[in-house]
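By convention, the token line describes the chain's fold. To illustrate:
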Amino acid sequence: MFLRGIVKTYLSEKQYGFIKGDDGKDYFFHHSSFKNKNDIDKLCEGLYLHFEQKATPKGYSAIQIELVEQNITIGYEIPDTIYTSKNSDIKGWEVIEVSNWIVHGSSINSPDSAKEDMIHGAKLIGANALFNIQYYKTTGSERGTGSRTYYYTIHNFRGRAANIARKSPNGQYNLDDLKQINSNAKTLKTSLVKKTTSAKIKRMLFWLIVFLLISILWIYKKDFAIIGTIGLVILASFLSHATDYDSWLEEIK
């Protein structure tokens, strides 16, 4: 007699799993027990199966397994958060795409803030995982009053953008949907480089205007030239910070 159940656990790398039968029992199954070997390609958690039961010394096994719905279309589901790993995989998920891009995150506040900054960057290029992540510190500096210089710690994270997913009867994505990181990152990088270049040009023009004003002071207002020069340089230093918009996104050559 055929029973009905749903795949409760499936370990594709080991080719076995467990079915939760409609009778409430758990049934062990192996790839070799499928009647139609082509059905194995659709095998995933949440899939309904018909099977016969077989008692074994270790419990019940499922044999003569077949799909309840033969023409079912299996899609992919993705995580609802971005996963990070020091390795190149995430347990329970299939690696769909490992991109050619490194995402950086940094913060002067805390390591957690730096990690969140990295995760935000991953979202911008459509990644849902970051592999081989690394944490490191760098030192920043800024001028204080007089000749003093202040140093501070910058927390940094870096990771390789990737996409993970797993098969599901309710999956809404196909493989092509999940292989867009490289193209997304390339487009965004090009846009950010243009933005950085534009900011640098504006900064150069700003300093050119400052130097022209200083020259005018020394020609026409020598009495105020020294004070005016100092004031303009200080003001320009505060107003003309060079912004690098694209350094957080690095292509692996």
About this structure: The chain has three domains: 2-67, 75-185, 190-251. The mean pLDDT is 88.
